[in-house]
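Appendix B. Extra example for self-study. Work through it before the problem class; the solution is given directly after the inputs so you can check yourself.
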Amino acid sequence: SQKIEQNSEALNIQEGKTATLTCNYTNYSPAYLQWYRQDPGRGPVFLLLIRENEKEKRKERLKVTFDTTLKQSLFHITASQPADSATYLCALALTGGGNKLTFGTGTQLKVEL
Amino acid sequence: EAGVAQSPRYKIIEKRQSVAFWCNPISGHATLYWYQQILGQGPKLLIQFQNNGVVDDSQLPKDRFSAERLKGVDSTLKIQPAKLEDSAVYLCASSSWKGGERTQYFGPGTRLLVL
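Solution. Structure tokens for the complete assembly:
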């Protein structure tokens, strides 16, 4: 069966450090993968999209990598700040899937002073 | 640009009662999605509309859930009758698909508690 796995335990890091979140998947051939941020009581907010033929994408302090051989995406936040504290969700879209996204369970990130 | 609007924001009902949620997508967005997010889990797609047609409703429990988007703009999601396990946040999202756009824009969600 198809699975998307993210770290279920919260990730606590110190301000200024790099946070790395993992998204692993099985039995999928995704056309692209997206990362969203979700704050308590709010809907997810889109951050980055990476396609199957791309290895890395960057946006300001954010970097996403995509390894289709390992079936894994890594999401990095450099120079983390307390304002980065949130739950981060990865989502996969299949080729020909009409932009239908399947979400992971999310990883809660806490950035401490 | 106004975001995705949803109402109500909160709803508490007894099991076996009915409930309806409303969504107004971003203007011009042809695609509309309804997701169910149970506490501690990621959103799960219930139904996807392209204009006023259903693209995917494979995960919609059709014995109790229904959704419509009659004029290709606003949408309503109904649960009748509700069960305890329907307690969740119901998220609406929309996307434009123009120029290869793949971003989904989410509303704030409706928090449903079934007692």
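Self-check: The longest strand of chain B covers residues 88-95. If your reasoning did not lead you there, revisit section 3.
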